[in-house]
Amino acid sequence: MALQKVRGAKMKVMIWLAVSVLLIWELVALRDIVGYSLFIQNSLIVLSSSYFFYLLDVHVSLAKVKRQLGLLMNKTSH
Questions:
Q1: Is the model's pTM score more than 0.90?
Q2: I want to staple 20 with a disulfide (CB 3.0 to 4.6 A). Which of 40, 49, 60, 73 is the partner?
């Protein structure tokens, strides 16, 4: 049962990442068509990505993210 929860959580994160990439792609294309500012584009990306994060009910531990970023930074600094 716990393994299914982990797999479900990972799947939610993967879906959220895919939706976020699609949103970024579409909003950049829309900016080329409509011509709104970069600030508005980035605000729309953050708001829409956050909304889908909320809709998918994704739970991410901030401590775990910090630890992963720390490991990533240590690997790239060498």
A1: no
A2: 49
